[in-house]
Write a structure and sequence with these properties.
CATH class: Alpha Beta
Radius of gyration: 14 Å
Strand order of the largest sheet: 4-9-5-6-7-8
Number of strands: 10
Oligomer: single chain
Order of helices and strands: EHEEHHHEEEEEHEE
Shape: globular
Strand content: 15-25%
Number of domains: 1
CATH architecture: Alpha-Beta Complex
Distance between the termini: 28 Å
């Protein structure tokens, strides 16, 4: 992906922070209309002039429902590399409230927070501390292709 022109994780985080306050829209992919948790990644890369779907080889419109399904985990496993520890810029998958499959994504930051499209209470992109209950819901951590990561966060 990106043919050796990787985005430093710190820059991905900066672009994601520019999206804080953008309204939540299920299956939304841009700042103007709104984003959902997956759209947050597309919009952050778009701010750098990168079509993430194209880079990952995704063609056509991807649709999904609001109910947890294996889709998100399977798609992530196909295109990303699993990490053992948190790293700034990593993709986080959450399996919330007893769900069988992960169904929410976020970007981990360099300050112990995460950025995500909160459609449950705030209806916008927010940045918040990775504490309870989120640490309990954290399912897995992934390296995104085309992002240059620094050392593991302790």
């Amino acid at each position: 992906m990106l043919e050796g022109n990787e985005i430093p994780a710190s820059e991905l985080i900066l672009e994601a922070r520019r999206l804080v306050g953008v309204r939540f829209l299920h299956q939304g992919r841009d700042m103007g209309s709104g984003v959902d948790c997956i759209g947050l990644f597309s919009a952050a890369f778009a701010l750098r002039g990168i079509d993430l779907a194209k880079e990952l080889g995704i063609t056509g419109k991807v649709t999904y429902g609001r109910e947890p399904s294996p889709f998100l985990l399977e798609a992530t496993a196909r295109s990303c590399r699993r990490l053992r520890t948190l790293r700034p810029g990593a993709l986080l998958l959450f399996k919330m409230r007893g769900a069988k499959y992960p169904h929410h994504t976020a970007i981990y930051t360099d300050t112990g927070t995460f950025i995500h499209a909160d459609g449950a209470s705030k209806n916008m992109v927010i940045e918040q501390t990775l504490g309870a209950p989120w640490t309990r819901w954290l399912n897995s951590i992934w390296a995104i292709p085309g992002v240059a990561y620094s050392e593991d966060v302790p």
